[in-house]
């Protein structure tokens, strides 16, 4: 397996994104009922978006999402990271990474990265 940049963890890993999400769902100490334990991992049994969630997160996390958010429309913003985190990440990595690399990692444009770098330099 080739090594891939994992934006979720900001480091080089040997895992795919779905492996990482499955591992993280276990680390969240998800409480699984006896009914959920009987259901083995089979994404094909789910409909629509739940099928996609089961493929990425596994059955236990899919059930937890369903129980919490069933019937609601959820929109996920494009920006995953907070402005403070992005600024700190850029501050820590602006000497080692090019603006293009920072932009790809954080999901911003190079222009915005350069603006933030100027803000950081003006604060000094």
Short summary:
With 124 residues, the protein is mostly helical. It is built from seven helices and two strands, in the order ββααααααα. The chain folds into two domains: 18-69, no CATH class; 83-123.
Write the layout of secondary structure elements.
Layout: E1 4-6, E2 11-13, H1 17-27, H2 34-38, H3 48-57, H4 59-69, H5 83-93, H6 99-106, H7 110-123
Antiparallel strand pairs: 1-2
Helix pairs in contact: 3-4, 6-7
Domain Mor transcription activator: 36-122
Protein name: Mor transcription activator domain-containing protein
Pfam families: Mor
Describe this structure in words.
This is Mor transcription activator domain-containing protein. Pfam families: Mor. Residues 36-122 form the Mor transcription activator domain. The structure is a single chain. By secondary structure, this protein is mainly α. The protein has 2 domains: 18-69, no CATH class; 83-123. Helices cover 56% and strands 5% of the residues. It contains 7 helices and 2 strands. It has helices at 17-27, 34-38, 48-57, 59-69, 83-93, 99-106, 110-123, and strands spanning 4-6, 11-13. The chain has a two-stranded antiparallel sheet with strand order 1-2. Strand 1 (4-6) and strand 2 form a beta hairpin. The longest helix has 14 residues, at 110-123. The model is unreliable at 1-18 and 20-30 (pLDDT under 50).
